Amino acid sequence: MDFITNLPRSAGKTVILTIVDRFSKMCRLVPLPKLPSASELAETLIQELFRFTGIPEDIVSDRGPQFASRVFREFCRKLNITLSLTSAYHPQSNGLAERTNREVSKALRLLIRSDPTKWMPHLVWAEYSLNSRVSPVTNLTPFQCVLWFQPPLFPWDAPAGTVPKVEAWYRESQGAWRGIQRALRLLSAKTKKQADKHRRPGFPFRVGQQVWLSTKNLRIPGCRKFTARYIGPFPILQRVGPVTVKLRLPRVYRISPTFHVSLLKPVKYSRLHSPADSPTDTPTPVADDPRPEIRAVLDSRRRLGRLQYLVDWTGEGADERSWVPAAEVTDPTKTEDFHRVHPGKPAPRPRGRPRK
After folding, report:
1. Which pairing describes strands 82-85 and 244-247: parallel, antiparallel, or unpaired?
2. How far apart are CA 60 and CA 117, in angstroms?
3. Which residues form a coiled coil (predicted)?
4. What is residue 96's three-state secondary structure?
């Protein structure tokens, strides 16, 4: 799942939401007026996808703010959907959506050179064409995988009709279909050639294996020139995608635990270097996405006997407000100001003799 953004406005739309099913390779291209918020994205998925396909087990996306937000994470948790964000510094992990984005953008660019604001009418033919193309993985079209049959393609050699409006639509659609087919064939061959040139054969790791993590893309304190090239070792918890794994990192590492295999190196022990010799004082990377500061406390409650606060985060909208444990509100002035205005709300219990 990904977005094509910054498109010329066409019929009020400037963004395309690209959704690709990993099994069938069926795609949905949803035009949107702008980049949606997390709550708008959730509503779009319900209206444009879930009501046709059902609720998915897993969503793979990049680390954009819509997908990484607390609202979207909670939305997925409520529906029992696993949210798999792409590995750090390697968006190719979301390869299906990335590739579809390139194909759609290329095809539309070839079709609308004369008028870039006319891409909306061609979007349906781009989706229809992608879903009618035989996948080298399944040897079937996405339509055949999902519907168990291939819908008929339109009779582009139909004789001329007598209704000018229909004829104009027919000829325009015919040109769009042929142009998209030609663009997709060219791009598919070029993409395959480039991917084969850099792809490594096979999957080089197994779950539970100890690996070193490259510091190439990590923010390590101190002089970069003298920073260790690898840190760890860390065990592999699970394989997330074809070329990505999830590591078990220390709690103090406030970074994503999902990495592309190109950033990992297997740990090799010998008689001269045993597991006990592995370094234990590895540097702690700086957090990729430090948690925003709490702007204000809005409400309080108790859940299972524990005090929680509803907080408003600095620089984020009302949709991102969330309940957090009282211990996470580290600025005492925030809670003091709240309880001064709302003295009747649940508050920390005074210290003293425990309750019987």
Report:
1. unpaired
2. 30
3. none
4. helix
Query: Whole-angstrom Cα distance, residue 200 to residue 292?
Result: 39
What backbone torsions phi and psi does residue 347 show, to the nearest 5 degrees?
-135, 165
Per-residue pLDDT, averaged over 132-139, amounts to 83
pLDDT in tens, 106-130: 777 766 666 778 888 888 888 898 8
CATH topology of domain 294-341: OB fold (Dihydrolipoamide Acetyltransferase, E2P) (2.40.50)
Per-residue pLDDT reduced to its tens digit, 283-334: 655 555 555 678 889 999 999 889 999 998 877 777 778 888 888 888 888 8
Topology (CATH level 3) of domain 2-196: Nucleotidyltransferase; domain 5 (3.30.420)
Domain 204-289 architecture = Roll (2.30)
Chain centre distance of CA 336:
38
Give the H/E segment covering residue 17. strand 15-20
Which H/E stretch holds residue 266? Answer: strand 264-266
What per-residue string of b and e applies to 283-294 under the rule 16 or more CB within 10 Å gives b?
A: eebeeeeeeeeb
Pair 160, 167: CB distance under 8 Å: yes
What's the gap between Cα 267 and its chain centre? 30
- Whether 6 shows a pLDDT value over 70: the answer reads yes
- Both tokens of residue 130? 């992608």
